[in-house]
Amino acid sequence: MGQGTQSIDRAAALLMFVINAPAPVSFTDVVEHSGMARSTVSRLLASLHDNGLLERMPDGAYRGGALFAAYAARFDRTEALAAAATPTLERIGEKTGETVNLGLPSGGRVVHVAQVDSTYVLGAANWVDIDVPIHCSALGMVLSAFGPLELPKGSLTRCSDGVVLSEASVVEDAALIRTRGFAITHGDFELGLDAVAAPVRGQGGAVLAAIGISGPAVRMTERIEEFGRLLVREADLLSRGLAKLPARGE
Predict the structure, then answer these.
(1) Would the pTM of this model clear 0.85, i.e. be above it?
(2) What class does CATH assign to 1-71?
(3) Distance (Å, rounded) from C-alpha 164 to C-alpha 185?
(4) What are the residue boundaries of the structural domains of the chain, listed by start?
């Protein structure tokens, strides 16, 4: 075992002990539990503390650090958003029969966190594990047009047919989305697949997420403007409830 691996294993052991303890633990408790030299324990605890994995209390005891709290809060918030949005997604699904999704911005991409499946045999797939470039996704286009995601830069290639999109056209599309209130894609990601999406807002009107409808063009194209207006209405109702949730980072 290399020295680096050994240090990682030792630090992990200390971290597990502190995290699993029912209450903050003292330096002496950590030393006694680990059987390591006091100097080694001191060095490892200091490193874990400096990287946000542990927090040192005023009395010198240790507990889980801010990184764990931030991680838990992020996923708690995602679950809260998904739970709050589910009735809306189900209602839209009943009205349209198409696949309905909730998408959140994360790491420069769109993460699909909730879905109501189409009632048709021919319908859109399960989007939860599918990574769709922002410029080929109605959800992504909404989130970039309204700010949570940055507008893609430079020339972009459309996923379905390889058509090159200029940066100017992306900016123009974003302006249209903001004016209209929803984004539309016609076969941008896959030929024959249409989608429409609208923004969902939280405290202060900040856009938190997007809800979207997707399905075969044979059913979607003629009704896509109607679906867009429906999404705007439903997103507005959902936003009123989500305004009560803490803003991102709080």
Answers:
(1) no
(2) mainly alpha
(3) 15
(4) 1-71, 74-241
